[in-house]
Design goal:
Structural class: mainly alpha
Strand order of the largest sheet: 1-2
Largest sheet: 2 strands, antiparallel
Strand content: 5-15%
Order of helices and strands: HHHHEEHH
Oligomer: single chain
Helix content: 55-70%
């Protein structure tokens, strides 16, 4: 069984939306459940200005942006602050640890011990967001529903037709 180019593109968009949307929401909810003040303390230690404001802004961007991507709603708008959060995380936290997201430090009787992650995953998220903005969010998205509705309402009325939507 072979799939058309459009079917493969739709499946790819859906897969990207699922992993990016879920990933952002998972990180946002983890920060929220630990408490915004705990995350603000981490940001303060990193030297981020206005850590309380930035903590809550980051949590909102991750949860709302993740939901937006998951639903395929206004992804081109949501991707801007989401990318900003990723760039800040990459420059303030992950850059000193290099590229690789997985650093095996040791294997003990308790299992594998890993070091701090690099900026690899940040770049992957940015690439996924860019792919969704450039390639589209796919057929099962709010953005596609809005585009269809606009197309239906902008069709010219043909002679003998009383309504634009049939």
């Amino acid at each position: 069984m072979t799939f058309s180019w459009n079917a493969r593109r739709a499946a790819a968009a859906l897969a990207l939306r699922a992993i990016v949307g879920f990933g952002f929401m998972a990180h946002g909810f983890a920060k929220l459940f630990r408490g915004g003040s705990v995350f603000a303390g981490i940001l303060h230690a990193l030297g981020v200005p206005a850590p309380d404001v930035m903590a809550w802004a980051t949590i909102l961007v991750e949860i709302c942006g993740g939901l937006s991507v998951l639903l395929g709603a206004f992804v081109w708008v949501a991707s801007v602050p989401m990318t900003a959060v990723l760039i800040v995380a990459m420059l303030t936290v992950h850059l000193p640890y290099g590229f690789s997201a997985i650093k095996l430090v040791a294997v003990t009787n308790a299992g594998a011990q890993f070091g701090p992650p690099g900026y690899e995953v940040d770049l992957l998220y940015i690439a996924c967001l860019a792919a969704l903005v450039v390639g589209g969010t796919g057929p099962f998205s709010v953005d596609r529903l809005i585009a269809r509705r606009r197309a239906l309402t902008s069709e010219p009325i043909r002679s003998g037709q009383t309504s634009r939507v049939s």
